[in-house]
Structures are given as C-alpha cells and as structure tokens.
Design brief:
homotrimer, alpha+beta, about 20% helix
C-alpha cells in the first residue's frame, strides 16, 4: 500500500495541513496518510529532525515522508526528493535532511526543476504531488534533475575519551524527559570493565535503570531508551522543570 | 471513495471527536474520514468559516464536510445539509455557511425534520448519519424537508475606490501571519498603471514580495498568498506580536 | 474491517504516537487506526478512564482499544489484554480498566508472558503487536497466560438517599462544562413525584434544561448530557472559570 507520512510546523488550527491531505487524496485516493506531528515550533529544524529520525524506520520500506518544516527555506534552497535507507523524503533542502541518517543516500533530485511552477505553498503544490508519485512507484529520477548531494548540517556531537563522555540534551519530550545524544553503543564500548559516574545539573548517579518504574515516584531515572539513547527523567514528574535542564544542556559520564 | 471531513470546535482532549468518527465507522466502514481541524475556539464562526472556505475546494467534488462548530446554535436554528459548488456540508444553520462561498447553493434541506430525534449531541446523532448518507450517494433531498435558503451572515467587506483600498485582517494564523480580505484580483484591477503604498500599523511599503523568503529574517513580507489574499508577516518571526496587529486590524493600499 | 483505536498520554509533539502507528501498519496494513485522544495529562487515569468509557461503545463490536496511559505503570503491574462488552482493550493493568465498565469481563490475559521481551516502550513493542493480533481475529487466549482478574480502582461514587443525591464533578471538558457522576437513571428513580433543588457553588436551580440553547447566553444550563450524566455549563461561556468549580467539586440535588 502507498503510505505518505506528514511532518510539518504548520500547527493544527489552520487549513494548511488539511490542504496538503486534500491535494494528496485528490490525486490518488488509495494513498494512506499518517500524521507524524504538526506541532513542530515554526522552523525548528532540530526538533523536526529528531522526530523524523526517531520514527521513520518504524514505517514500512518505501514509505514517503513529506516534511513541511521551514518549507520555503532560505533564498536559493532547493525543493528536493531524497531516497535514503529505502525510504523517500520530500521537502526543502534547508539542512534538516542531513540530520536524519548517517547512511549515504541513494538518490536526490531537485523538484520543480522540469516544469517549474511558482507557489507560496510548496507543501501543497509541489511536495504533495511528488509524494503521491513516489508512493505510487514512479521512479524518483523522473521527478526532477539529479543533484550530486544535499545540504548537511552538523549535529552537536559527543566528546568521548577513555576518561569521559560529554554529551548534550538533544530533545526535551512532552513529558519533560531529557533525551541526550549519548548512545548505548558508545557507552558499552567505552565503559567496559570500568566504574562510572553520570553527572548533570548538580546530580550524580552511579548506575542506569532498565525501566522507568525502577525509580521511586519523584526520583530520577536514567535509562537507555527505545532509541538506544541516554534519557534522564523523573518518574511521574517533569525532569526539565524539576532539574532545571533544557535543550543543549550538558551530561557527563566520568570513568574511574 | 466516500470522504467525510470533520471541522469542529470540540478540541482534542475529550471523547467528542472520537464519538463522531465512531458513529460514522459504525454505519459505514468504507468512509474515509479526514480531520480539517478541531482547534476552533468554541463558537468562533469567523475562524471556522475562514478555514473551511480556504480548503474545501481542495478536496474532491462530492466530499461531505461535517461542521460541528456552534453545533447546537441558537434557539430556532435548523440543522441542515447543503449542496454548494458540488460539495456537501452538514451542520447548524447558525450563519457560518453563508460565509464560505459566493456561489448560489444547489440544495438545502432541514435535517431531523422527517423522523425527529432529540439529542444534545447533534454532531454524533444527526450530522454523522446524514454525512454518511451523502457520502454514500443518497440524494440530499431524501434527508429532510427542502428549505428555500439558509442564514447568510455578512462578512466584513473591503472598501475600494480609485484612490484607496481599505481592508481588514480576517485571520491571524498559527505562525502569527496576518491574512487580510484584500484579494489579488481586486488589487490588480484597481492598481493598474498606478503607484501604491501599503500601510498598516505604523508601517508603509511600496512593493509586494513574490515569496516569503524574499524578506530578510526579522523583516516584513507582504505577499498575495496561496488563497490569493494579501498576507503580511515577519520572515521567521511572529507578525501579530511584533507589529501589534490582530484580527479585524486595518490595512490600507493608497494609490497615487 | 479491523479497527484499532489509540488513547495515550504521549501528546502530539513527539515521535511516540507515530511509532505506535508505524508498528501497527508494518505488521498489517489493512488495520484502520483511529485516534481517540493523545492529550491526556501524563498518568491521569481518571481523565483517560472517563474518555474511553464515554466512547468505546460507539465503535463497532470487536474494536481493539490500545490504551497507552501510564503505560509502564508501577513495579509489578502486568501488561494485559482484556475482553469486555465485546470490545478488546490492551494496556497496563494500572487500575484504569477497572473504571470503564460495570460489566464482568470475558477474558483477561497477561501479555509478554509467553515470549518475554524487555522494552521501555511497551505501547510500540508489546501493545501494538497484540492489538493487531486481536484486530485480525486471533483468539485473546493465545496472547498470554490467562489471569483470574485485573486491578479495579474504585471510582468516586454518588451518595443517594430519599432526601438528597450528592455527586461530584468527574470531568471538566475542553469547553469548561462540568460533567458529574449523577446519572439520569438514578435521578429519575429518586425524584419521582418530588420537587428538587440542584445546588452547586453558590447557585441553586429548580429545573433541568433539555437543550444547551434553552439557557440565555451567559446563563447556566443543567442538562442530562449524551452520556446520561448531569452536566452543568454556561451557554457560550466557560462554566469552570465562571463558577469557580473544578474536578471533584460537589453537586447536590435536594428533594423536598
């Protein structure tokens, strides 16, 4: 089945999202549309990239992900379709797509390069028709001129040595949990045979939890979450508020 | 395929919207349901009318639009089904439907006039079954007594002379952009061969932009948007907040 | 058709809900997914129970309701599937399911008891696959070990005598209407042949309305709503704010 997901910063109180869906349905009523979220803060590429990166692989291969975040971009940003890890992405080449995967892409094409139309609403007028074509099995290379590559923003990286891992908070989720860029994979390699201290804010801990509910109510939990990333929270509380930590805050793991 | 869209002021934290969908599915599981929005402020007819007017034509013809905004209306308001521009609308005759099109309607019938039921939840108990019938191809005239017409509220109109167009802000969207009732069509006719100044708040501009990103970050853009309406915004900013303008604010175009 | 509804406290700004949907679709693309709401305050069992109880019977029988509210629960809470009133429920045995029906259940089984997996995201990794199986017609007893019963929280009950009914507000809806636990059924029995006064906050009333719009704008209405429960509101106003009443507030009906 043809599946198109939608991720936008358009909110839910206007006609914009419905207009994108209406266009898709008008072209091909057999497409299944699934919302990822429309509650990205306008232009917040880091939030959008985190969400799409966290979930796109859960969808079947060949799913088309229409990304309408900062959709008009800056002057000169191309509108593109991208094939990556056997998924398709359609959106503005504003840097976001460089943040969602470390794998090399299979194809990237410039939309609106063959029969150019002018519009202030590319999500509806350019992305939606392109997404339907891809979902219907039309080859990506027929959608526009091939480009050698696309814009790659550099994500905030961890600093890792034998003595210490320094990471940062890359997402405060809706429950106030703090998700960092420290992966279980890196931790497992560097921590082998060592004791360690996890430090953030004024807090220090010497162990991870396997489950949220291993912490007592109101106490900190530190887990590797379902994305394999170090996550800090307060069981049945809001960690961001209670610990005073926010996006970009620092988390250290010190080995001894 | 049978399509029913939903537009309500019921919000998303209660059972109301799900109850409407459940009723539709229980009657006919083949109906495709698409949300337009449920984030209309309770009873805000102007907001609801703007959204449905902006998007209904993007859906395939024969789509049924269930409008549950101020759904019980005032004493004496009929519950109606309406055929207009080859789309169907179901809702309360509270004035809203008079705002969505300038075209004459094809049919209007009073629901709940043949086998009357009493309910405090007409969206679920009256609108949903009627919407399914229309989506399934049952003639609108079989749904209730024909009415000669329906209530027409008068929208705020522009004042247009050879010297000046005075319009107003009819919608502040979720990003803070200010959408006015000044259409490109009217502007093109009146501005032919003239210079012009666009004035609002304390600001004056002498040109339109073709694209949002033709403005610098933090600067005003003035475009005719995807609805063909004059729209004012701040590129990567919130125009309503930064310009101190809100719904019903005045925008002038002065010719010289 | 196989239908799975989703009710979570995950909000709509993260990847969590999309991840649940993606898992369902990846297992069986023929499943129809319907959102009930994701705007439950984290861990608010009373809110979640009210919503699911209010709407589940509107869906076709055999519908599967995936409830991801307080999904990890407390230490020792089982993850369960439940057959009740010819509907299926999947979620954590944290007490919520004891609040949704007074009928005896047909079956309850412990998920993740046969081939145990470890996860911090049971909504996606355990509930979604179980929901798809149930929606596809696989017998509930094949999903896990049968349990004799599940946790029953006790809801706040009314106190009813021949002289008075004392109830409480069990839900303030998104429009500020106050929904109580006083049912029309109980009221009809106890009030037969008597006069009565409805008292709450400083207000007293001696009659019910049949419709919201029987009250004047800004005035109180008191109706038995579409759930058959006593509901207090302000016509075109916010009763919670204007009357200063909130969840758990007391409403009395005094007979004389």
């Amino acid at each position: 089945m043809a599946i198109v997901t939608l991720l936008t910063d358009s909110g839910t109180s206007d006609h914009y999202v419905a207009a994108i869906k209406a266009r898709i349905i008008s072209i091909n009523q057999a497409v299944r549309i699934e919302d990822i979220t429309h509650d990205i803060k306008p232009g917040d590429l880091a939030h959008a990239a985190f969400v799409i990166r966290a979930v796109f692989r859960d969808f079947p291969m060949q799913t088309v992900h229409l990304v309408g975040v900062d959709a008009v971009g800056n002057k000169g940003d191309a509108l593109i379709a991208l094939q990556l890890e056997d998924h398709f992405f359609v959106g503005c080449d504003n840097g976001l797509f460089g943040l969602i995967s470390d794998q090399p892409h299979a194809q990237v094409v410039e939309l609106n390069s063959l029969n150019t139309i002018t519009t202030t609403f590319p999500e509806r007028d350019i992305f939606a028709p392109a997404a339907v074509k891809l979902a219907s099995g039309i080859p990506i290379t027929s959608l526009g001129k091939q480009m050698p590559t696309f814009r790659k923003m550099i994500d905030r990286q961890i600093k890792a040595t034998k003595k210490q891992i320094t990471g940062s908070i890359i997402r405060v989720d809706g429950m106030g949990n703090l998700i960092t860029n420290i992966s279980k994979r890196v931790f497992d390699i560097l921590s082998e045979g060592k004791n360690y201290t996890i430090a953030f804010g004024g807090e220090k801990f010497r162990r991870f939890h396997a489950q949220y509910h291993q912490a007592e109510q109101g106490e900190c939990f530190i887990i590797f979450n379902s994305l394999g990333l170090l996550e800090i929270g307060i069981y049945k509380g809001n960690a961001a508020e209670l610990l005073g930590l926010d996006y970009d805050g620092v988390v250290n793991i010190i080995f001894d």
